[in-house]
Amino acid sequence: MLRALDRAQGILSRAVADETTLDGAVAFSSKRYPALVMANRAADLAAVEPVAADDLLHAIQAHFQDCGSRCLALAGAGLVDSRPMRAAAEAAGFKPRPWEALILQRYRPPQTPRDDVQVIPARAAFEQTARLFTAAGLEESNGDEQGARQRGDAVVEALDDPRFDLLLGRCNGEPVAAAGVVGLGQMGVIVELFTDPEHRGHGIGETMLDHLADLCHRARFEQVLVELPEAAAARSWLHRRGFDRFAELERWQEADAAAQGGSGQ
Predict the structure, then answer these.
(1) 104-248, superfamily in CATH?
(2) Residue 94 buriedness (CB in 10 A; 0-12 / 13-18 / 19+)
(3) Long-range contacts of range 19-23, CB-CB < 8 Å, 24 or more positions apart?
């Protein structure tokens, strides 16, 4: 199941970045989106010895330097002892970011939805989708306008992949929330959960999750997974909708990017 989470994130990264297989990691880099975490990261880090972990970090940083970009985030391979990699990442200036993986244990039919929220496919409203995720980027990057614009553009670009379905929620014709899923055969991975800050606390996010859970049910996914930061506001209503934690995830973010909040993780 952890591999499925990595595959889903890889699909989103490949839509906006170049992929390179290194000895012990997979690197995604993009000159077009230099401020975007999903486009400038290394995944599947698999070093198991301290010296090898240091060498791997040096190789990753050298690769990104050759590509003319910076590695903004690291993700460990789920089945590998992460202690050597953890020490090397922190020594290289990356800060740990606690994430967790959840699985849907009990499908619950949608509750009574808010009838003032119109839910449509994001592919039917590219401009509004870009605008909403630009707002997400502003929040994630603490006001970095360049990173915010890249966030909005990248989500729209990722919609070219048919495995990525994104729902857009609108109130009075304006975009206020989104929720997506990446389909991997009989498995679905939920991604891009976001509600505009001005519309939080009114059940819109839960309405979006209800629609997305129903979409996953109709797609007959045998398993539905999601990964998110341990401190994410969505945790509580994911648990209320039948999701249970099944793993901790190793994630690190470059110190400067972490201080800004990051864009598009």
Answers:
(1) Gcn5-related N-acetyltransferase (GNAT) (3.40.630.30)
(2) buried
(3) 20/63, 22/56, 22/59, 22/60, 22/63, 23/56, 23/59
Quick one: pLDDT band at residue 78, thresholds 50, 70, 90? Answer: low
Q: Rounded to an integer, what distance in angstroms lies between the CA atom of residue 93 and that of residue 248?
A: 21
Backbone phi, psi, residue 57, to 5°: -60, -40
Asked whether the predicted pLDDT for residue 217 surpasses 50, the reply is: yes
Look up residue 168 and give its two tokens. Answer: 């857009």
Give the lowest-confidence range in 6-10, 111-115, 182-186, 244-248: 111-115
Segments of the chain assigned to CATH 3.40.630.30: 104-248
| Residues 6+ away with beta carbon under 8 Å from 78 | 2, 3, 5, 6, 247, 249, 250
Q: Please give the model's pTM, rounded to 2 decimal places.
A: 0.90
Alpha-carbon Rg for the chain, nearest whole angstrom, is 18
Of the candidates 197, 206, 201, 191, which has an alpha carbon nearest to the alpha carbon of residue 264? Answer: 191
Quote the DSSP letter at residue 235: H
- Contact by Cβ (8 Å): 72, 171: no
What is residue 261's predicted lDDT score, i.e. its pLDDT?
Answer: 43
Cα distance between residue 207 and residue 63, in whole Å:
43
Q: What is the side-by-side order of every strand in the sheet holding 18-22? A: 18-22, 25-29, 41-45, 73-76, 251-254, 94-96
Q: Mean pLDDT, to the nearest integer, of 90-102?
A: 91
pLDDT tens digits, one per residue of 116-154: 999 999 999 999 999 999 999 999 888 889 899 999 999
